[in-house]
Design brief:
By secondary structure, the protein is mostly beta strands. About 0% of the residues lie in helices and about 45% in strands. It has no helices and eleven strands. A hairpin with a 6-residue loop joins strand 4 and strand 5. The N and C termini lie far apart (about 40 Å).
Length: about 130
Amino acid sequence: QVQLVESGGGLVQAGGSLRLSCAASGRTFTNYVMGWFRQAPGKEREFVAAIKWSDGSSDYTDSVKGRFTISRDNAKNTLYLQMNSLKPEDTAIYYCAADSVDYLWYSVRERFKEEKEYDYWGQGTQVTVSA
């Protein structure tokens, strides 16, 4: 049974940093794409970043490029999202997700920005950025 458990959220001032973690268990994720999504109050859940577990290739939504970094630790089976230069508009619940169709990563990249394509989800962690 796949489990994804996020942690590391909290309250931070604008300009500050947080690192989110997602502990993954239940199977080997070598052939998965792992993603981070977020949902702000009153808004739909949106793509933030994704990484192809096997080779570390990554992708980001434009609004976080240069500020956020997605990474993974193979030994710990853990996904990370390092968030720097945080802005109030980054306030949201952040979710990690797993997609087993990694072989499409280089041919259909846009697929991995769609939440409906992901097979497994964590429960989310709240990030609040104060002005």
